[in-house]
Amino acid sequence: MSGASTPISRSGRSTPLHLRDIVHDVIRHYRHEKDSEAHRIFRQSAGHKPKGSLPQTVNPDEETIPGIEHPGSTGVIYCSDRAMANGFSYASSHEWANLGQGAPEVGQIPGAPPRPTSIPLPEDSLEYAPTTGVKALREAVANLYNHQYRQGKLSQYTYENVCIVPGGRAGLSRVAAVVGDVYCSYQIPDYTAYDQVLSAFRRLVPVPTALDAENKYKLDVQQIKKDIRTQGLEVMIASNPRNPTGQVIEGEDLKSLVGTARESSVTLIMDEFYSWYMYPEDEEYGRSVSSAEFIDNVNQDPVVIVNGLTKNWRLPGWRVCWVLGPKNLITALSQSGSFLDGGANHPLQLAAIPLLDPERVMQEKVALQKHFKHKRDHVLKRLEELGLKVEVPPVATFYIWLNLEHLPAPLNNGLTFFEELLKEKTIVIPGIFFDINPAHRRNLFHSPCHHFVRLSFGPPLKDLDKGLDAIGRVLKKAKKEGGHAFGHSYKKSVDGVHQLDKLV
Q: Tell me: the pLDDT tens digits for 91-137?
């Protein structure tokens, strides 16, 4: 104790410096969900209560008829509902900045081919399409992957390796439906819909691994090999490039991951929806990434690829996507699709075929990468000017994983930051949605994603600036009024229900 100063408090009592610091630190870091209005609103939303083994009382908002349970919403759905509670409507969406948007802008961008403006409707397209998809489109997908990633390789994809599905979630659900009782590895943070997939298909036992900023959220292939040996993993699911961190594994690292799956007989499910969103520093535009490049035998290697028109072609409304894998998998997906979704839209499958022409695809990729790299650089610069320097800038996707820890409480957590921005007519996605936690038991304050938000630079530049201006206003208010100005006076979600009723 010698040498330690002992300051005098306002009450006249002395407090040892180190004890005072400890107490202040405990108070500063005191974290419990019930003490945060934003967290209470989240937990009160249908499907977000912790799932335990003890019987729970029936919530009339979650169970309207016996046996029905809410699975919990994805980040975009929850955030849209909360925005509606704060006055958002699709009729007035131009007044808002949606930096939570999980889709790219869909309009014309410089250098890209013209956008589709009409859809032919031949009479046979009015019939159901096969549950595996239109053969001509399946052939076009196989040919594109062979052209982009498998030139000179003996084993080539054919239409029998392709299943067309009505959206990425439908593809993941079809795959999950044909997987047996297995341990499934996934990484945190990752795509929010994996939470719902792992909750709904309970034969997949979730085994999480946390990625960290110090390693730039990079998949550790050596750790994966160790987990396979020690935990008996049989399935691994991952996005690459990664949502929400904007990182990517490629080259020798991706080759090693595919090789590990092959050698260990572990099924690797790769969500590659952002495969074109690569931002080269050397101006060599047009390069994309896929595990298809490192597969030896397309009918034997246990690698499943999910992709589609949603992100790369910037056609999210079409819901035309695909699963690529061994022939026997495609047969199984045809069966699961027959009871899960019935198949993708027939006319839009036919309309998609010319969009997969390799020359057109290259033009699309180059234009997309130039345009989105410009937007990425613009947003990163503006964030830094606001004092929000991004620790791990994105090298792919159109997302920024923004750490809020250095902001004053309570703005230093994603849910509160999100609620405050709603007051400014701006939407972001709180980081906790990327903590794949199927049971929802973890205290939100203990989540490794709690102090983050995901910002999307998918929208047009003018919308990005509108949202960044709103962030600037919140930070200016924090500097002027302090933390007491935040963390309260939020609209309740029940208001959002009334808003939805008005919109129907």
A: 888 999 999 988 999 999 999 999 999 999 999 999 999 999 999 99
With H, G, I as helix, E, B as strand and everything else as coil, classify residue 445.
helix
Would strands 429-430 and 303-308 be described as parallel, antiparallel, or unpaired?
A: unpaired
Tens of pLDDT along 188-206? 898 877 777 877 787 888 8
Which amino acid type is present at position 182?
V
Q: How far apart are CA 185 and CA 182, in angstroms?
A: 10
Tokens at 466, concatenated: 């509108």
Q: How far apart are the first and last CA of the chain?
A: 68
> Going by DSSP bridges, is the β-strand pair 426-427/97-98 parallel, antiparallel, or unpaired?
parallel
pTM above 0.85, yes or no: yes
Tokens of 497: 């229900």
H, E, C per residue of 141-158: HHHHHHHHHCCCCCCCCC
Rounded to whole angstroms, the Cα distance separating 359 from 314 reads 17
Closest CA to 174 of 133, 211, 210, 138: 133
- Measured in whole angstroms, the distance separating CA 13 from the mean position of its chain's CA atoms is 52
Alpha-carbon distance of 332 to 339, in angstroms, equals 12
| Spatial separation of the C-alpha atoms in residues 42 and 310, rounded to whole Å | 28
What pLDDT, in 10s, does the model give residues 49-107?
A: 665 544 444 555 555 577 777 666 667 788 988 999 999 988 888 999 999 988 999 99
